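Hey all, sorry for the wall of text incoming. These are the two entities for the joint prediction.
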Amino acid sequence: MPQDLNYLRETPSQTAGPYVHIGLAPGAAGFDIYREELGHDIAGPNAKGERIRVEGLVMDGTGSPIKDVLLEAWQANSDGIYAHPEHPGEVEDGFRGWGRVITDFDTGEWGFDTIKPGPVMGRNGRIMAPHINLWLVARGINIGLNTRIYFSDEDAANAADPVINLVEWERRRETLIARRSEADGKIVYRFDVQIQGENETVFFDI
Amino acid sequence: MRKPAEFYQRDRGRHPPAYVDTYKTSVTRSPQYSLISLQNSASEITGPVFGHNDIDPTDNDLIVNYAKPGEMPIGERIILHGRVLDENARPVRNTLVEIWQANAGGRYRHKKDTYLAPIDPNFGGCGRTMTDEDGYYYFRTVKPGAYPWRNYVNSWRPAHIHVSVFGTGFAQRLISQIYFEGDPLIPMCPIVQAIPDPDAIEQVTAKLDMNSTIPLDTIAYKFDIVLRGRRSTLFENRLEGN
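and here's what came out:
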């Protein structure tokens, strides 16, 4: 009899469904229940670095905005440190690095306010360009989609980024770059996610 | 500090594929290109940390957390409990578990749900808790009802509770659904059957647990959640460049 490897198996994923807001953003579902909903403040008041807004749409294969998506962001602080016990270094008091937003039920627009992350040490001592890790779930999405948001004003760092360079098709790399603009002194990065079809966003198996 | 260790590769054959033509919404919401595989870096190995200050002790009791004083939701009182483990069978401690569900009639407290079954004035339908030092979690709630949805004309979801888990790294982030043992709608549901492996479908089915039932009070179901395990870096640890 062959040796039995006693590993457990990961619980299979299922779609978050149309009413994901009830559990993870009940205020948006139309009722208040918790003292505090989680994920509204990524960086906290003490975070150093440039204050930015990241916003966009999530489009389906017909080019229509999806209006029931939940997105989560995970990022380092401006020194490239994650708020996690296994990452060497300190983050500012109140810096969580994680946020959760939903798309507007009428327009599909989403956005979050944070600080621009610093470069993070990657594998084999190679520096990763500043980026925000993004995870999307929604009705019709059977397993959460992972992607990364990079920044259009980081050309040199992006060109050297070990993850961007894994994408063999140079045209597809563009789908990972958020476009910077300034209006009324606010810095906004636009990041539209195309789930399917032309200019489909690069998604990762992480 | 533990040395940063990578997670085992996700076995995509245990998970539903992105495109499942019988689950119609997935047809336009599934990428057509292959996922690009990434070896883990700090971005994937780390993840958000939550504390007990983030939540309230009654957040895991759906029978009281939205009920008016002295009132209760209508439905079958159940305890849902189990452990969060990794693939190495180690407990995942102090991790956030969130659930949401319909009421006993299959109606969600959501402004987009227009099903004619009524809202229960004493039931919100969401809860959250942190696992303890053994990875253990528990909720008290009412068993949700099945409900119809517009997939085929006569499609009904089996009774289910949605569950969201974090683990310790962003690569472990997982949302799934918990079904109930013996429900005859399970084999008919395109969302459940999107999972290609019958054994994996069994893994998302909570089992009746008479030993944890409170006599004359509340019946119990057990559901263990397994998140990705981590490699032991026996001969190499290239994450930090050595």
